[in-house]
């Protein structure tokens, strides 16, 4: 049992992901940031689209649902909040559910905070997670709808996945995240990683996917409790330390 992940840029800084189950040849699209690009990539690959898996309702994640469904007949699967984009999913899922793509099983992980109903999709057999806008390389999503406690809990669910899990986040934000991370954390592992990131971006290379282990070691949002002292929050609860890091990023101008 295995999958192939095909990654490609969409819009200004999104990534699109097409996933193929080797056993059956069926494919899924993770979110629909740009329908025309996704359909072009499908055609070039010759893959049969069976599912659209939405992580949340934002237009740069679900805005292409209707066009791609009309072109392919794919079934739209996602949280109930996707209805806010204009059409309810064909199948509504939440944390604890499972979705089958051929013989590949995706576990649905509750990951609200960026939006209230945000979910991630985890293929435990292949150690692959599609996390939308909850976790980024060296970052996390803004709290447009949820609370710091909700987002911290969501990040902890993702951090509990195996360290070698490949994490496919939806945006190329890593260089700006790295500049912020260096402003709040003097972790030597972070310094080494950011040097590699800046060099990769200079060469025009992608920084996605990352891994759970790398993020646990270097991402300031996952390391928030260790940074509490630097932020003047000694003794703060973990979610309070996280809230302080998120607030600092929201106002960061670097």
TrEMBL record:
UniProt function note: Thiolesterase that catalyzes the hydrolysis of S-D-lactoyl-glutathione to form glutathione and D-lactic acid.
SMART domains noted in UniProt: Lactamase_B
CDD domains listed in its UniProt record: hydroxyacylglutathione_hydrolase_MBL-fold
Alphabetized GO MF terms: hydroxyacylglutathione hydrolase activity; metal ion binding
Catalytic activity of the protein: an S-(2-hydroxyacyl)glutathione + H2O = a 2-hydroxy carboxylate + glutathione + H(+)
InterPro entries from the UniProt entry: Clx_II_MBL, Glyoxalase_II_hydrolase, HAGH_C, Hydroxyacylglutathione_Hdrlase, Metallo-B-lactamas, RibonucZ/Hydroxyglut_hydro
GO BP terms: methylglyoxal catabolic process to D-lactate via S-lactoyl-glutathione
Manner of cofactor binding, per the entry note: Binds 2 Zn(2+) ions per subunit.
Binding positions for Zn(2+) 1 per the UniProt entry: 56, 58, 114, 133
Keyword annotations from UniProtKB, A to Z: Hydrolase, Metal-binding, Zinc
Cofactor(s) of this protein: Zn(2+)
This protein's encoding gene: gloB
Domain Metallo-beta-lactamase, residue spans: 13-171
Transmembrane segments: none
Organism: Phenylobacterium haematophilum
Enzyme class: hydrolase
Assembly and oligomerization: Monomer.
Name of the featured protein: Hydroxyacylglutathione hydrolase
């Amino acid at each position: 049992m295995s999958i192939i992940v095909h990654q490609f840029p969409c819009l200004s800084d999104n990534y699109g992901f097409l996933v193929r189950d080797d056993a059956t040849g069926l494919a899924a699209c993770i979110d629909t940031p740009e329908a025309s690009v996704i359909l072009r990539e499908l055609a070039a690959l010759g893959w049969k689209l069976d599912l659209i898996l939405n992580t949340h309702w934002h237009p740069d994640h679900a805005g292409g649902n209707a066009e791609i469904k009309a072109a392919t007949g794919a079934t739209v699967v996602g949280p109930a909040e996707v209805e806010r984009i204009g059409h309810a999913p064909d199948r509504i899922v939440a944390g604890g559910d499972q979705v089958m793509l051929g013989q590949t099983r995706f576990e649905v992980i509750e990951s609200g905070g960026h939006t209230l109903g945000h979910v991630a999709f985890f293929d435990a057999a292949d150690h692959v997670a599609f996390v939308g806008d909850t976790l980024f390389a060296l970052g996390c999503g803004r709290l447009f709808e949820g609370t710091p406690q909700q987002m911290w809990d969501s990040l902890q669910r993702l951090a509990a996945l195996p360290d070698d899990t490949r994490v496919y986040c939806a945006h190329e934000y890593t260089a700006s995240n790295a500049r912020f991370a260096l402003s709040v954390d003097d972790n030597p592992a972070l310094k080494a990683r950011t040097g590699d990131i800046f060099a990769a971006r200079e060469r025009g290379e992608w920084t996605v996917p990352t891994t759970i282990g790398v993020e646990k070691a270097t991402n300031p949002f996952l390391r928030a409790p260790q940074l509490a002292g630097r932020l003047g929050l000694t003794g703060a609860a973990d979610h309070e330390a996280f809230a302080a890091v998120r607030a600092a990023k929201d106002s960061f101008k670097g």
